């Protein structure tokens, strides 16, 4: 077997993707585990090594769906709670590095081939201008990628910011969430996979006064793909427009000159998304429409972009 330089893992609230990295900085043998089957990153790593029959290498680099500035980690969208120091101790003598998962998505952006990107709408790419990464999965993650001699990724918690009240429907949706007893209402409550989509289903069901035979997100995606389900078309049409509004606001705040949407949700209905109101919602502005019109937006179709970011980070660390 080729010598293993490192193990890498992109650990989200729903799935953990693990691979090993060779001497040429290529990754291999991606395994996808359900995060709910484990309690901490070291359990995922040990399960992967056990399956492949390999020893832990000296270097393990992990991207997790949580901030990594503090020792105590709490995954908002699953049951995981652990200390980074405890995980490092359990994985000793390996050296373990932690990064935010969307930070690693951002680190991948300059290295993704065009074949991994689907452009939505117009705009022209400026290669070294700031890039905005948005990950849409169980939650919503964001990072800004800027170039100064090298690429630098700045992670943030955009999914926990407040939702802009851009139209009356969003206001009504917000009011429904407030009436349900929520004290804090954030972007994830509108477009996150774990909370946002189910809550949008509840709202649209009430708004349209419909009783849908199967209102689960997966069933509605199936109905959307074959376009036989009018409720699904309306629901996800609204969902795509809200993503456009959120992406616009993040873009205006950060000064990004290109936007990249990643994660497991949009690729499930990519054709619909490309033709949806996402782009018109992104460009909608009475004052800065010409600016937004010039900014390209892309969907990342590579299923493992954060693994690419982790590999690039390892290469950069070892080159210093």
How is the secondary structure organized here?
Blueprint: E1 4-11, E2 15-22, E3 27-34, H1 41-52, E4 59-64, E5 72-74, E6 81-83, H2 84-90, E7 95-100, H3 101-108, E8 117-120, E9 131-136, E10 140-148, E11 150-156, H4 168-179, H5 188-191, H6 196-208, H7 217-225, H8 230-254, E12 258-262, H9 270-275, H10 278-283, H11 289-293, E13 297-300, H12 305-319
Parallel strand pairs: 1-4, 4-7, 9-12, 12-13
Antiparallel strand pairs: 1-2, 2-3, 5-6, 8-13, 9-10, 10-11
Helix pairs in contact: 3-12, 6-8, 7-8
Q: Class of the largest domain in CATH?
A: Alpha Beta
The overall average pLDDT, rounded, is 94
Number of domains: 2
Shape: globular
**Major β-sheet, in short?**
6 strands, mixed
Strand residues, percent: 15-25%
Q: How are the strands of the biggest sheet laid out side by side?
A: 8-13-12-9-10-11
The CATH topology annotation of the largest domain reads as Hexokinase, domain 1
Number of helices: 12
Count of strand segments? 13
Low-confidence runs of at least 5 consecutive residues:
none
> If you compute it from the alpha carbons, what radius of gyration comes out, rounded to the nearest whole angstrom?
20 Å
Task: Describe what this molecule looks like in 3D.
This protein has 320 residues and is of the alpha/beta class. Helix content is 38%, strand content 24%. It has 12 helices and 13 strands. A 6-stranded mixed β-sheet has the order 8-13-12-9-10-11, with helices on both faces. Strands 3-2-1-4-7 form a 5-stranded mixed β-sheet, sandwiched between helices. A two-stranded antiparallel sheet has the order 5-6. A hairpin with a 6-residue loop joins β5 (72-74) and β6 (81-83). α3 (101-108) packs across α12, α6 packs across α8 (230-254) and α7 packs across α8.
